[in-house]
Design goal:
Blueprint (H helix, E strand, L loop, with lengths): L16 H6 L6 E5 L4 H13 L2 E5 L3 H11 L4 E5 L3 H13 L2 E6 L18 H13 L2 E4 L2 H11 L6 E3 L16 E7 L5 H6 L2 H9 L5 E5 L3 H4 L8 E4 L4 H10 E6 L8 H8 L3 E5 L4 H5 L4 E3 L4 H13 L4 H12 L2 H9 L1
Length: about 350
């Protein structure tokens, strides 16, 4: 199959319309991910508006074989997260002359031995991912902290890594109604390890000592949460549809991201757009998102978290406006779309 000649040189990679219009309209893209999330689906929908896209989202040997075969039929392989599946696609593509874009989101540079979390804890998977990082034509990171981790894990200069954060629709995520004295947290957790990575166990410790405050956690089945013995002032709900999530953001005065590690957390940015006062641990992209528009605390410092949550709940300042304006300015959906095309 004849492959279109594509230039992925470092110089001015994320640029303007001149490069955007030079892309062939019939550029065939193989879109790879091991799972689905709202932000992955958003990129898939956007790319599909401009180019023929062949999505492969899933797990298993059959899924891997489909990826390998599909590399022959496409001009670019676009991978969300550095998994074993995307690594094989990038490696095969390199030897077939198929260009590759690999997006790092956080878990793909993790190696948390205490919780057994991160692909770099696996000897064979880490070798595959390291090879993919070295061979990928372009690696996009949602936060600059991930660039440094990727360079450290793979042991190279990271010359193919570019910072490109996710983007958010400020017209959809917006404040609307009067706030309630509620601390909201959104954390998609399927097991205890993910529960701890998202710091929900840390938040439970704070909630136990804040009996007069109301806590709402979305994305977790109550039966999983009950293993950690949460207090009576803390409610847990499974994942909800986007429209319901919007309402919860709009109702809550405070949004808490108590994570052990993060890339650039989508829920935090969405909540800030909806006028929530942000409180988060000082890890990864939390600080990038919040800066001086909320409260940052050390991970696992319960006293610091309680103090920050109380300050946020009692705040009558302009922090909600500042928080929204920061996300509008730094992470607009339109900028991500323009830079993806570039």
């Amino acid at each position: 199959m004849h492959k279109k000649r594509l230039n992925f040189s470092n110089e001015r990679f994320l640029t303007t319309n001149r490069h955007r219009h030079s892309l062939p309209k019939n550029l065939n893209i193989l879109f790879v991910s091991a799972f689905r999330t709202s932000f992955i689906e958003e990129d898939l929908r956007f790319l599909s508006k401009h180019f023929p896209v062949q999505p492969h989202i899933g797990h298993g040997i059959l899924h891997l074989l489909k990826i390998i075969l599909s590399v022959f039929q496409n001009d670019i392989i676009f991978c969300w997260f550095a998994s074993a599946y995307s690594a094989v696609g990038v490696i095969v593509g390199k030897y077939l002359g198929v260009k590759s874009i690999l997006i790092l989101g956080g878990v793909d540079v993790a190696a948390d031995k205490e919780l057994g979390y991160g692909i770099w804890l696996s000897k064979w998977k880490s070798k595959l991912v390291r090879r993919a990082l070295l061979l990928a034509d372009r690696i996009l990171v949602v936060d600059n902290s991930l660039k440094e981790e990727a360079k450290q894990r793979a042991g190279y200069d990271g010359n193919n890594i570019v910072y490109l954060p996710t983007g958010y629709d400020a017209l959809f995520w917006k404040p609307l109604i009067e706030k309630k004295n509620v601390v909201l947290c959104v954390a998609q957790c399927e097991d205890e390890r993910r529960f701890r990575i998202k710091g929900v166990d840390f938040l439970i410790q704070a909630a136990r000592q804040m009996s007069s405050a109301e806590f709402v956690v979305v994305g977790i089945e109550p039966k999983l949460a009950y293993r950690f013995q949460p207090p009576m002032n803390m409610k847990f709900y499974p994942a909800v549809k986007q429209e319901r999530l919007l309402q919860l953001y709009q109702e809550a005065k405070v949004y808490c991201q108590p994570s052990r590690r993060e890339g650039l957390p989508n829920a935090l940015c969405e909540a800030m757009l909806c006028g929530c006062i942000p409180v988060a641990t000082h890890v990864g992209g939390n600080a990038t998102a919040i800066a001086d528009t909320g409260f940052l605390v050390p991970y696992n410092d319960v006293d610091a978290l309680i103090s920050a949550l109380n300050d946020a709940l009692e705040s009558g300042s302009d922090l909600p406006v500042k928080a929204r304006l920061r996300i509008v300015a730094l992470f607009p959906k339109e900028k991500r779309e323009t830079d993806l095309l570039s």
